[in-house]
């Protein structure tokens, strides 16, 4: 079995990432796009492109029928879903197989089992993978969920069983907040996933979010590619990721990677995936057993932050995905995988952090990426691109790699300082501030970091903005007055007075 022509069922930077890998392997590519994306970079990079529907995702990128039809009409023999959209849809995986296409991802039944937080918890518990204490009561009324919450104790999390990306999730610290949180989570879950089933989970108060990259083939082999630290988040969405995780002892790392491999084996996993954990109490102790490790979920797809793993291991995950999907054995054994140096990824969003991270949209009047040693930028936009409100606000990912964490951090900050984006508001300045924060520099953060430090970070960012505007205004005023000085005239006047700004020119 081989892949000759691959359809990329996605858009933006991940579509370009997959297309680049295919080009390196001599595989032709088909890009699908909505009507608004017809002239975007990913469509121009592919061997051919097909418009599959109007701008709204449900009518284009989320339409299984439209994607399958595009694969058939273009002669594609495989489909790579990227991440987001249909990447974790068991229905999409099954439809590809039914159509005789190679699905670059795990089997549909595996996606289904791991996509349900309830089923995933049961599977992990049976496999001996540690999980956070929680319950999914058969009685899904507020009464049944309230009883489950009482048994667990507060603080706790209310979660959507089919949830992802923080949707359908609420933190509840006091009992009198539970009723409201249940209603909000249920409505959000039904709207996003069509499934309002909820479960409640004991909340670890100051955990780190650490995930392990795994890859499995069809021949019983599973390997891990070590861990990523993903604790800097806003609204349960990751903002900065790094590998390896700082201040993680060898014993705790061993526990995490062993649990991740065991989880993949228990699920009958295939292709690339990520096992996510909450970790509390690691410190710098040599006592690995003293740390609390709890399974969070397993993402049955490539992750947004996969470049940091590629940077430190030197392994191309998309190449591996394509090889495994075509039936080959894993291209490397566990003892061939090691970590070299340190890598950091910063996600650049079109959004306004000071306005509750409200997404922004519009045309990019200027877009100029940083370049230099140890800098990689994954993006799907260029100057003139339209940032649409229909899609995720992620503009680019800035990945830096260096021999040490300190150098990787400094390189990331310098790269962001040289990143020019005009036309939409971004979080670039805020990320730069985060990278310089003492807790981040020291590598001692948890999932509450951004929430607790945000006000101070935003205040500093606003001060910087005011100084930048003052400098820009002074330069603009200087430029308008310059013609007066150039004529040698001793006449004084306003900068908008034509008799002083036009030099020696006169109408008569």
How would you summarize this macromolecular structure in one to three sentences?
The chain has 508 residues and is α+β, with helices and mostly antiparallel strands. Helices cover 37% and strands 24% of the residues.
Keywords:
single chain; 508 residues; alpha+beta; Rossmann fold; Dna Ligase, domain 1; D-amino Acid Aminotransferase, Chain A, domain 1; 4 domains; eight-stranded antiparallel beta sheet; five-stranded parallel beta sheet; 37% helix
Task: Write a structural description.
This protein has 508 residues and is an alpha+beta fold. It folds into four domains: 5-104, Rossmann fold (3-Layer(aba) Sandwich), CATH 3.40.50.20; 133-202, ATP-grasp fold, A domain (Dna Ligase, domain 1); 206-340, 2-Layer Sandwich (D-amino Acid Aminotransferase, Chain A, domain 1), CATH 3.30.470.20; 343-447, ATP-grasp fold, B domain (D-amino Acid Aminotransferase, Chain A, domain 1). The protein has 16 helices and 23 strands. It has helices at residues 12-25, 41-45, 64-74, 90-98, 108-115, 117-126, 142-152, 178-193, 250-267, 306-313, 317-325, 405-417, 428-436, 438-441, 449-486, 498-501; strands at 5-8, 28-34, 48-53, 78-80, 102-103, 134-135, 156-160, 169-172, 198-202, 208-216, 222-234, 237-243, 271-280, 292-299, 342-349, 351-352, 358-359, 362-363, 366-368, 375-379, 386-387, 394-402, 420-422. The strands form six sheets. It has an eight-stranded antiparallel beta sheet with strand order 14-13-10-11-12-15-22-20. It has a five-stranded parallel beta sheet with strand order 3-2-1-4-5, with helices on both faces. It has a four-stranded antiparallel beta sheet with strand order 6-9-7-8, covered by helices on one side. Helix 2 (41-45) links the parallel strand 2 and strand 3 (48-53). Helix 4 (90-98) packs antiparallel against helix 5 (108-115), helix 12 (405-417) packs antiparallel against helix 13 (428-436) and helix 13 packs across helix 15 (449-486). The longest helix is centred in the C-terminal third of the chain and has 38 residues, at 449-486. The N and C termini lie far apart (83 Å). The model has no long low-confidence stretch (mean pLDDT 91).
